[in-house]
Amino acid sequence: MSIKSTVLGFPRMGSDRQLKKLVEKFWAGKATEQELVEGSKQLRADHWALQKQHGLTEVPAGDFSYYDHVLDAAFAVGIIPERYQQLDTAGTQAYFAMARGLQNKSIGIDVPSLEMKKWFDTNYHFMVPEVADNQKFVLHSTKVVDEFKEARALGYTARPVVLGPVSLLALSKTAKGSSTKPLEQLASLVPVYVELLGQLAAAGAEWVQMDEPVLALDLDAAVYKAAFEQAYSEFAKIDGLKYLLTSYFNRLGENLAWAATLPVHGIHLDLVRGSDDLDTALATIPEDKIISAGLINGRNIWKANLGQQLAVLNKIISARAPGRVWVSSSCSLLHSPHSLQPEVGHLDEETLGWLSFAEEKVEEVATLAAAAADPTTVQAKLQVNAANVASRKSSERITRPAVQQRLAALDRSFYTRKAPFTERQTLQRAALKLPLFPTTTIGSFPQTAEVRKARAQFRKGALAEAEYTEYLEAETRKCIEWQDQIGLDVHGEFERTDMVEFFGENLEGFVFTKKGWVQSYGSRCVKPPVIFGDVSRPKAMTVDVAKFAQSCSANKPVKGMLTGPVTILKWSFVRDDQPLSQTAGQIALAIRDEVVDLEAAGIKVIQVDEPAIREGLPLRKADYAAYLEWSVDVFRLATTGVTNQTQIHTHFCYSDFNEIFTAIQNLDADVITIENSKSDLKLLGALETHGYAAEIGPGLYDIHSPRVPSVEEMTARFAALQKYIPAENLWANPDCGLKTRGWPEVKESLENLVAVA
Questions:
Q1: Are 410 and 637 contacting, i.e. CB atoms less than 8 angstroms apart?
Q2: Which positions ≥6 away from 144 have C-beta within 8 Å?
Q3: Taking a C-beta distance cutoff of 8 angstroms, is the pair 208, 160 a contact?
Q4: Listing from the earlier edge strand, what are the strands of the sheet with 530-536?
Q5: pLDDT grade, residue 447 (50/70/90)?
Q6: Who wins on pLDDT, 725 or 647?
Q7: How far apart are CA 608 and CA 500, in angstroms?
Q8: Are strands 325-329 and 524-526 parallel, antiparallel or unpaired?
Q9: 186 and 170 Cβ atoms separated by less than 8 Å
Q10: Which of 271, 250, 249 is closest to 368 using CA atoms?
């Protein structure tokens, strides 16, 4: 008996972020489009070779992207908004303008990018397609066909990966000035998909992976069942193709009953996050359909318990006909770092034995398939895996009794400010003496090549600590004095590496990888810390830096900048051996200690960022209440130790806020800054529906694009905000932090922002 082994997708960036470097060289004009094409082709070939080398019997093709797979899908079927039609749509100019915006004053081009949102409950961001009334869908790109042909030419058994039409439209938004819901135009889109799938069939594809991740959500069954039947009944007419209907990140739940009846040939189950589906799936999915068992976690970095997962796999095999079961990752490995190889010698042997990155997960998939066929062929691997799993369970490094006892002993007074907001606001206005419409940034400033070089030299020991500190202080002083000069009212500080990595490096219970990079959006990669044990703060983390930054401004407050417990949790690879709420509570206590110390050091404004709080919201509404209760609690635990005169800020970005607006209110922050510019002022609808009594700074411009917003553009946006927010509660600020931008565009943009306020 042989079992197909495969994964749903592989990380795009490469073992050393080769794609990031290549794309950024192209943007900078230092690489040609042909060099971008050829370099990407080599990267795909390397990744297929690696997957084959580790034992997969089939590799995915079409999972690669220069920027984002949702953008690729929209571009492929001609969803290119009118403002980009003036650009070169045959090459990459229009594509990258949709991703990043494009501003070239010398030729009169100034177009913003598409809106950006979080990909379900991950830290990956996707570009939101805009579908106009009577959208003209055409087959504009055959990228997935071309990449499938590449894989075939190299000798691999490959499976094209296609974002399905229902999910593409469900994840899209109605273009400005239009009124038709995207999904209502499915009938016009399906023929283009039929054309694309026909080309795949002609190219020799046998199976196509149709990604329909909306199946993991609460759906209107009447609407979506009809939509799926409309599309897939047409796809079934294409001779020679078989379809694997693929969803991930959650259980299919009630959607499984009708999804199982669709004219597809296999169904993928995420049996990591949706394991509750298994018994129902075995009873519901017809026996002539393949079950793709997603048994290896594509979203975390812990070694799988192969013995445990093999038992699940054998249960599925015993219930199906021979050859009707595949083994796979739970979702694409896009959300995992590339390989553990660079960590050898960097991480201790014990920790290394607990971890599994994308390359190792590929081997775990192949090992499971081999073990199900004949366990004797992989007995040694299974024994090593069992020893590593047992080591993690028994390690004394995991548990710190004092940390657990402190959290357990808290009463409700630790979760409440000393006075209501209206009283605090009066005291804070007297203490801070801010003008009407205060201006601020979200906190971070550009991390230039010089800054990164100095940091790298310091970490290698080539720059002494005193020299490094002197350099940072000089750069900090320069940054604060510039903010004074242009008239910003509340200053951000200069030095911070990554907003999660920095704190993890200063807390107990974390370890850090050398090259554990994952894609966040476009070419932006992050290196999440690993939370392996109980978390505590051994000493102050930011107090000295904040005190120095404040000393650089005679009469303007400088914000103490901290990352909130939910964001540290969500943007880390987190331990899976205790409830998330308990780990978040431990982090909150550590941040609380830092907040109290900052206040004692004279810092009057403290920002505790929680951009990931919406990202953590479960995909099913039945699970909302429990999550929102503990996520609000841990923020309040982190921030309620200060006096009423200290102003607590928080920040949110790139999310649908309506679903969590009540929770945002319950955080009881004094000021929130919130993404707004890329989402067509949708925040205003939330404000109109829910109201907001505290102070708020909706973002006036998008920082993920290099374009500089004009005074006129931001003035119009600010005027719209004043219709919904009392003037005395309104702040002016960008959407998000400025770390990834360059100083010239930052200076011009912030000068324009100050002029608006």
A1: yes
A2: 61, 62, 76, 160, 161, 162, 196, 200
A3: yes
A4: 508-511, 530-536, 573-574
A5: confident
A6: 647
A7: 12
A8: unpaired
A9: no
A10: 271
Task: Round to whole Å and give the CA distance between 177 and 175.
Answer: 6
Angle at 63 between CA 61 and CA 67, to 5 degrees: 140
> Sign of dihedral through CA atoms 480, 486, 487, 488?
negative
Point out the least confidently predicted range of 160-174, 356-370, 378-392, 644-658: 644-658
Which pLDDT tens digit goes with each residue over 264-304? 999 999 999 999 999 999 999 999 999 999 999 999 999 99
The alpha carbon torsion through 67, 71, 75, 80 (nearest 10 deg) reads -110
105 contact partners, CB below 8 Å, separation of at least 6: none
Residue with tokens 């299919």: 252
Confidence grade of residue 704 (pLDDT, cut at 50, 70, 90) = confident
Mean pLDDT along residues 89-94? 93
69, 125, 338, 704: which is the annotated catalytic residue?
A: 704
Task: In whole angstroms, give the CA distance from residue 538 to residue 568.
Answer: 17
Q: Which residues pair with 59 in a beta bridge?
A: 158
18 CB-contact burial (10 Å; exposed 0-12 / middle 13-18 / buried 19+): middle
Instruction: Find all residues with CB under 8 Å of 63, minimum gap 6, and list them.
Output: 8, 9, 10, 12, 69, 161, 332, 334
- pTM for the structure as a whole: 0.91
Question: Which tokens sit at 152?
Answer: 């075939």
What are the pLDDT digits (tens) for 397-436?
999 999 999 999 999 999 999 999 999 999 999 999 999 9
704 as an active site residue: the answer is yes
The dihedral built from the CA positions of residue 328, 329, 334 and 337, taken in this order, carries a sign that is negative
234 — pLDDT class (breaks 50, 70, 90): very high
Rounded distance, CA 564 to CA 700, Å?
Answer: 23
Mean pLDDT computed over every residue of the chain: 93
Please, is 678 exposed, middle or buried when counting C-beta atoms within 10 Å of its C-beta (0-12, 13-18, 19+)?
A: buried
Q: Which residue reads 């007074």 in tokens?
A: 413
What tokens appear for 566 in the block? 């939910």
**Gap between the Cα atoms of 320 and 645, Å rounded:** 66
CA torsion, ordered 490, 493, 498, 503, to nearest 10 deg = -90
Q: Quickly tell me which residue has 């009594």 as its tokens.
A: 693
Instruction: Please identify which residue in the block is written with the tokens 């994840």.
Output: 171
pLDDT tens per residue across span 473-487: 888 898 889 999 999
Answer whether residue 608 shows pLDDT above 80: yes
Tokens for 95? 């594509």
Beta strands in 637-723 (DSSP E): 647-652, 671-674, 695-698
Q: What whole-number distance in Å separates Cα of residue 578 and Cα of residue 392?
A: 13
Please give the Cα distance from 265 to 260 (Å, whole number): 10
Cα 89 from Cα 355, distance rounded (Å):
43
> What end-to-end distance do the CA atoms of the chain give, in Å?
70
